[in-house]
């Protein structure tokens, strides 16, 4: 093909234009070979003999587009856990251009518990709110994809699992219970959540020693709950301990715009709106048999 004067002059001018000092692009990890790096396009007139240098530069190759711009495509499947940011240089006759390539996270790691099943010996008169165990888990993904949430499946009426910390607390009396098992699960924060293999917490309940009178109910009990960012309206946050009242009902004493609501008979607390900052609510537990109510 013979280039006419104006076209040839245009190409010569492009070749003489300076190259910007830095470019930035991104590509999802584990993308197929040949996937373009988004955003990393050098201007028209980039030289055909340009070369790519830098640590692990062989993970990419240069491609020339019809509009004479120069881009990058992957030469292999990339792993963010190995390299999250590439620092590359495109060598051109008229100078060098620095190119940063970020490998964005793909939710491809399943969360896993650190440690296995546990067995705990617990007294039948253990106070409500006592932490019986704490579990931990890890996920190799980044940002929200690597954020783990703990939960019981099926739900337990005896035990409460803190979603963010993995703490397991007693929320109902163990009187009359000899053994109990909690199936604990963990999921990540991906748009399509990945769920890891469960672990089990086994409780052996005993009544060693001489019988004791039940402890007096405390007037004020404080519980803290961590609410995950992805929590939605209507999600169950916790079940308020029943304080060993045989017949009781629950009342919310907080303001009308409280971020939670409580079921009168069960004590289940549900989220009613999004949280932008910590919030404190007051719940009164009424003893239907006439004893003095407790408060939370």
From TrEMBL:
Coiled coil: none annotated. InterPro entries: Cadherin-like_dom, Cadherin-like_sf, Cadherin_CS, Protocadherin/Cadherin-CA. Residues 19-113 form the Cadherin domain. It is a single-pass membrane protein. Residues 1-21 form the signal peptide. It is found in: Membrane. One of its GO terms (molecular function) is calcium ion binding. GO terms for cellular component: plasma membrane. Keywords: Calcium, Glycoprotein, Membrane, Repeat, Signal, Transmembrane, Transmembrane helix. Its main location: membrane. The keyword Ribosomal protein does not apply. GO terms for biological process: anatomical structure morphogenesis; homophilic cell adhesion via plasma membrane adhesion molecules. This is Cadherin domain-containing protein.
